[in-house]
Design brief:
Bound molecules: iron/sulfur cluster
Structural class: alpha+beta
CATH class of the largest domain: Mainly Alpha
Mean pLDDT: 87
Largest sheet: 3 strands, antiparallel
Radius of gyration: 21 Å
Strand content: 5-15%
Number of strands: 3
Order of helices and strands: HEHHEEH
CATH architecture of the largest domain: Orthogonal Bundle
Length: about 120
């Protein structure tokens, strides 16, 4: 039988990959080879730690929970097109240097565009 910490870690990894779809608690425990009792304890623990959220769901005439990740896996999408990635000054750029992100026009423009893009995504 797998150790609880190992199971908790594997469960969190699995749930994190399900994104908006989530996963039924029962399916997850089958996948990880855990008992439903042990699985419930781990799901509650992960929820209490703020890593996942649980929503009650009626499935095949029985109440169960669907588990959703609260934190998205880290991705590099958020820094896509960042000017620093292709900047020829990046080696000399630093917070207190002559070339600095503090007054970089390219970085400022990119950041503002990103904020604008983000704020319009919620618009109908
Ligand atoms: S902050 Fe500006 S100057 Fe510094 S690496 Fe990024 S784009 Fe280049």
């Amino acid at each position: 039988m797998p150790r609880r910490n190992d199971l908790e870690h594997r469960a969190l990894q699995f749930i994190s990959k399900t994104s908006d779809e989530g996963v039924l608690q029962v399916d997850l425990w089958h996948q990880l080879g855990a008992s439903s009792r042990e699985g419930s304890r781990i799901a509650i623990k992960l929820e209490n730690k703020g890593f996942i959220r649980r929503e009650r769901e009626l499935f095949d005439g029985r109440w169960t929970y669907r588990l959703y990740p609260k934190k998205e896996p880290v991705s590099i999408t958020s820094i896509k097109n960042c000017p620093c990635l292709i900047c020829s000054d990046s080696v000399r750029c630093g917070a207190y240097g002559a070339i600095s992100p503090n007054d970089c026009e390219r970085l400022t423009t990119w950041s503002i565009d990103l904020i604008r893009e983000d704020s319009t995504q919620g618009d109908p």
